[in-house]
Amino acid sequence: MSRAHILGVGHYVPTKVVTNDDLAKIMPTTHEWIEQRSGIRERRFIEESGIGASDLAVPASKMALERAGLTEKDIDAIIFATLSPDVNFPGSGCYLGHKLGLPGVPALDVRNQCSGFLYGLSIADAWVRAGVYENILLVGSEVHSTGVEFTERGRAVAVLFGDGAGAAVIGRARDDGKGIHTCRLHADGAGAEELWLPAPASRNIPRLTPEMMEQGLHYPQMNGKAVFRAAVENMTAVSRKVLEDAGLEMKDVDLFVPHQANKRINQFVAAALDLPDDKVVHNIERYGNTTAATIPIGLSESFAEGRLDDATVLMAAFGSGFTWAGAVVKF
Fold first, then answer.
1. Nearest to 122 by CA among 184, 65, 177
2. Residues acting as catalytic residues
3. Contacts by 30-37 with C-beta closer than 8 Å and gap 24+?
4. Residues 6 or more apart in contact with residue 148 via CB below 8 angstroms
5. Which of 245, 249, 72, 99 lies closest to 169, judged by CA?
6. Which residue, 297, 304, 292, 303, is CA-closest to 282?
7. CB–CB of 304/295 below 8 Å?
8. CA 15 to CA 55: how far, in whole Å?
9. 3-state secondary structure the chain
10. In whole angstroms, what is the distance from residue 164 CA to residue 126 CA?
11. Among 90, 103, 261, 283, fewest CB within 10 Å belongs to which?
12. How far is CA 124 from CA 4, 7, 78, 80, 82, in A?
């Protein structure tokens, strides 16, 4: 089986910039409080109602296709990673396929939250290597701004998230030695309710009540300290494992593109891996946590800066589920 590779990457973020000071005008918080705890200075929000995750994915996908030297008609499968789909069903991948003019092309939504892009990368890698599909469009796209609580009760979560999309085209490697060398995926449901959205839920009759809404159960809930500890431990461990699987050492890594949940998490992970800061991609200060979109946005910006040229890239993510994943790609 031939190796799969990331042939092109792209991204898109809304034009509306929301600073920490902007948030301080609508709920009790400060720029200093947010930046000290997360490293975030600003994020992007959709400009108006009616813009969904699939809408943000369109320009990101077109950028990735252009950089890959392909067109929409070359795509024969779509994988769409998101925790904030346009609607509960159908999946956002179906909407994206329609907007790109791809009737009949299969679309799979991946619901692995912050690890969604790497879970999708593993699926795309297997499909290409097995010859199931030739060129796969893998997208991570999120609209968080319409689903968090901008109050004192919700501020610990609300200040962290932003809207954005990243995309990658996965196909056969065009050069020997380059491509996706390894992906590794993990999950542990014991931590499921440390970071989750309790309502609406199909296990409840009815799925959503006024009482649930009064309690704020339709907004994300997070045990920040537990998530922080688990993220550092598991992102570090999976990073070491995927390098071992690829027959590489930490000194071989040219660029580390971690999920952007909290800058402090990534600094702890990089320190544990003995990776200097100049090898680590940080963009959370500008975009906040865009969940499934953070890694492809980081890859896309790194491509534009020339940082992917002949680079061995390590990626790692951790998020709700708990889920975590790692990958090594040689560009």
1. 184
2. 114, 259, 289
3. 34/159, 35/285, 37/262, 37/264
4. 154, 157, 158, 161, 219, 220
5. 72
6. 297
7. no
8. 13
9. CCCEEEEEEEEECCCEEEEHHHHHCCCCCCHHHHHHHHCCCEEEECCCCCCCHHHHHHHHHHHHHHHHCCCHHHCCEEEEECCCCCCCCCCHHHHHHHHCCCCCCCEEEECCHHHHHHHHHHHHHHHHHHCCCCCEEEEEEECCCCCCCCCCCCHHHHCCECCEEEEEEEEECCCCCCEEEEEEEEECHHHHHHEECCCCCCCCCCCCCHHHHHCCCCCCEECHHHHHHHHHHHHHHHHHHHHHHCCCCHHHCCEEEECCCCHHHHHHHHHHHCCCHHHECCCHHHHCECHHHHHHHHHHHHHHCCCCCCCEEEEEEEECCCEEEEEEEEC
10. 26
11. 103
12. 8, 12, 9, 11, 16
Preceding peptide of 14 cis, ω within 30°: no
Q: Are 173 and 179 in contact (CB under 8 A)?
A: yes
Look at residues 66, 69, 82, 79 and name the one whose alpha carbon lies nearest to residue 292. Answer: 82
Q: What are the CA-CA distances from residue 174 to residues 64, 177, 178, 251, 279 (Å)?
A: 16, 9, 8, 25, 26
Q: What is the pLDDT of residues 243-296, one digit of tens each?
A: 999 999 999 999 999 999 999 999 999 999 999 999 999 999 999 999 999 999
pLDDT of 134 reads: 98
In this structure, the number of other CB atoms found within 10 A of the CB of residue 141 comes to 36
Q: How far apart are CA 90 and CA 288, in angstroms?
A: 27
Structure tokens at 105: 């092309």
Residues 118, 328: contact at Cβ < 8 Å? no
User: Do residues 286 and 308 touch, judged by C-beta distance below 8 A?
Assistant: no
d(CA 29, CA 52) in angstroms, rounded, equals: 28
Burial of 159 (0-12, 13-18, 19+ CB in 10 A): buried
- Could you say which residues of the chain have pLDDT below 50? none
Burial label for 295, CB within 10 Å (0-12, 13-18, 19+), is buried
